[in-house]
Write a structure and sequence with these properties.
Elements lengths: L2 H16 L8 H9 L4 E7 L5 H4 L5 E8 L2 H13 L4 H9 L7 H7 E6 L17 E7 L8 H12 L2 E13 L11 H10 L2 E10 L7 E9 L4
Parallel strand pairs: 1-2, 1-4, 2-3, 4-5
Antiparallel strand pairs: 5-7, 6-7
Helix pairs in contact: 7-8
Bound molecules: S-adenosylmethionine.
């Protein structure tokens, strides 16, 4: 791990999530969406970065596994969970989710594993990520990294294959101001990918964001069909 990568992981977290809560950038809507999911036993957060414990305020899960290809992000997440020390942003998120900040240590204890796995190449191969075994599968900012519609659709299918029959899937993807080389997100694309993945979407929404670098995002929630 280079110092530059460590610095980049810190800078990303500080900009988006740590120093203060950034209203108007879609985070409130994502938290509300996650809060509508009933309690689950096992949750997998793919392309987690170091942010799983932020989204965890809104999720009611007994355990969570965080998955990423960046070891520095996973290391940072692991460190934060071990320290269980609240960043200023967590205070606001806890209140937005109707939780007591004192619950943070309990939330940190739900992070039972971090895993290195490439989630944009199919199939996702990791012994801790068997297909059809999670009550909730999330991705925030992962599928927006795909190259084009075909890549988005195959990755969407691979990611959500981890959800159990009738299990929940949820995510958000940002449209970058400079999105050269990235998939163009649209409602049609999500609906086609969901059909291919045997996912029934119950929410699909485009939200404008105050972040000039990421002026909009798409959020979605759904369930894997019990019988394809
Ligand atoms: C935009 S960041 C989002 C991080 C976090 N989920 C959040 O809510 O802020 C995208 C994350 O996806 C990870 N990533 C990129 N390519 C990946 C891949 N092929 N498989 C798994 N994770 C990947 C990156 O390392 C990064 O942590």
């Amino acid at each position: 791990m280079t110092a530059a990568r460590a610095g980049a992981a810190e800078a990303y977290a500080a900009r988006h999530y740590r120093d203060r809560f950034r209203y108007g950038e879609g985070t409130e809507q994502i938290l509300a969406m996650l809060g509508s999911v009933p309690p689950v036993d096992r949750w997998a957060d793919l392309g987690s970065g170091a942010q799983t414990l932020l989204w965890a305020w809104a999720v009611n899960a007994r355990t969570v596994i965080a998955v990423d290809t960046d070891p520095q992000q996973l290391h940072l997440l692991h460190q934060r969970a071990s320290a269980a020390s609240l960043d200023p942003v967590h205070d606001t998120v806890a209140h937005l989710c109707g939780r007591d900040p004192a619950e943070f240590a309990d939330l940190c204890a739900t992070l039972t594993a971090t895993a290195w796995a490439d989630c944009l190449t199919t199939p996702i191969e990791h012994p801790g990520l068997p297909a059809a075994s999670f009550g909730l599968v999330t991705q925030f900012g992962l599928l927006g990294l795909t190259r084009d519609a075909a890549h988005f659709t195959t990755a969407f299918t691979a990611v959500h294959r981890l959800a159990a029959p009738s299990g929940w899937v949820a995510g958000a993807n940002w449209t970058a101001r400079n999105s050269a080389g990235r998939v163009r997100l649209s409602a049609e694309l999500y609906r086609a990918a969901a059909r291919a993945a045997d996912v029934e979407l119950t929410l699909l929404e485009r939200i404008d964001s105050a972040d000039p670098d990421f002026p909009s995002l798409w959020i979605y929630l759904g369930n894997r069909r019990s019988t394809p």
